[in-house]
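Box S1 | Example of a co-folding query
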Amino acid sequence: MCEIKLQDESFSKRFTSYSSGSIQPKAPAGHSWESLMEMARNEARCAQKEGEVPVGAVVVEMGGTIVGFGHNRCIQDHDISAHAEIVALRCAGQTLRTYRFSSCIMVVTLEPCAMCTACILNARLNGVVFGARDHRAGAIVSSCSETFSSAFGVRIWYMGGVLGLLCAQDLQRFFAQRRCERIEEELLCSTIMSPQRIS
Ligand SMILES: [Zn+2]
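Box S1 (continued) | Returned holo structure for zinc ion
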């Protein structure tokens, strides 16, 4: 069951919502949406260990085979496009030797941004399942979704809020920790930089 029901229904015409009381799409064979999201969360934990923002994604075939996975790698790869979704799509492309994924679903811990949403549509994924909403940069339901209503000639479904609370907490913890580290660094710097009386 989804933990968070999306309230905002002004989603892109290019996406069909399964999140507002309609029947949930069936999870690929051998999985539940929650178990797939746990895999994506594991990927997110890898990102955090590597000093990246903890977002993870998996690409799964309808038959149940995991064909791609990935996590944020922007900092270590010096690559602004290395978001978890793109890394997972590149991985799936190598696995399936294709760039179109109509038999696959992406499961990602955070609502995709505009760049990743464009790639998801171009990749012709069957559907996308995300955990936490990104109210600032999310492009499926949260912002700029109208951009995608006419730019792409495809239509895919989405479902948001799968383990949404846990996915949101993972990110909140990460940013809270990073804020604390920055404050500690600033305090350390101000201590070093402050003029001291030598007696
Ligand atoms: Zn993205």
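The chain has a mean pLDDT of 85. The CA atoms of residues 136 and 143 lie 7 Å apart.
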